[in-house]
Amino acid sequence: MTKQMASGVDMNHWFYIRRRLRERGVEMITSATVEEVKREAILLKVGEETKKLSGIEAIILAVGVRSKNELFEPLKEASREVQAVGDAREPRNALEAALDGAKVGAKI
After folding, report:
1. Under a CB-based contact definition with an 8 Å cutoff, are residues 69 and 106 in contact?
2. What's the domain range around 88?
3. Residue 84 in contact with residue 62, Cβ under 8 Å?
4. In this structure, are strands 41-46 and 32-37 parallel, antiparallel, or unpaired?
């Protein structure tokens, strides 16, 4: 786990991306472990605290530079539609992963 976000993105671009995400109410949580996924909520372990997120529209997992998608099947079973994007589909830089997410997001 890491606290660093957007490691492959130019810092100037990241500044504007982060600002736009925050303006739209996106909560960015780093160094968290998914404990449980339910239809109505997701439970995260952040440090020593368990955090329950509900009323959410989307969950985006960013897990680094290795393809790591073992949550894909449990999430698929717990929701109507799940798409693997970014590094969960194939490791690459943050810009390519974001473009992948944008393309899938435009379809749903």
Report:
1. no
2. 11-101
3. no
4. antiparallel
In a domain, 48, yes or no: yes
Q: Does any domain span residue 1?
A: no
| Residue 44 bridge partners (DSSP) | 34, 51
Number of separate domains in the chain: 1
- Tokens 């994007």 correspond to 85
DSSP 67-106: ---TTHHHHHHHSS-----GGGTS---HHHHHHHHHHHHH
**C-alpha span between 64 and 102 (Å, rounded):** 18
pLDDT digits (tens, 9 = 90+) for 11-55: 888 889 889 999 998 888 888 888 998 888 899 999 899 999 998
Strand ordering across the sheet containing 32-37: 32-37, 41-46, 49-54
Residue 74 located in a structural domain = yes
